[in-house]
Amino acid sequence: MKSFVVVAAVLTLTPLVSACAMLDQFNPQPEVAAASDMPGLLEPIHAAAIGQDQAVFWVSSNGCTEKADLTPVVRRAGDASVITLRRIKEDRCSDVRPEGVEMRWSFQELGLESGARVSVENPYQMPQT
Q: Which domain holds residue 56?
């Protein structure tokens, strides 16, 4: 009797699994680049603001962080774009800035159209006190 129940359960679930696979064809997920495909390391941020065709980030700094030390990776996700800020050069100074430093990119620098919908993918980190 147990084998009959197992077979019945498998036969009952098979159409559901197939339906899930079919739904994925109609709801494609945005392609996400693997972390290994991106430059540098994912940068935790203190804050981010998107407005007036600019992306502004507050990032940790030991006193030497410059805009050239970070690179924004922009990818499309449906009708919007996602920015992932990556650190490509480590800040080895010793003048820690607990509030972080501001880094700013224009939409033009990011290859985005004016008024584009944008989100940020970076994790948030509370400032060090």
A: 35-120
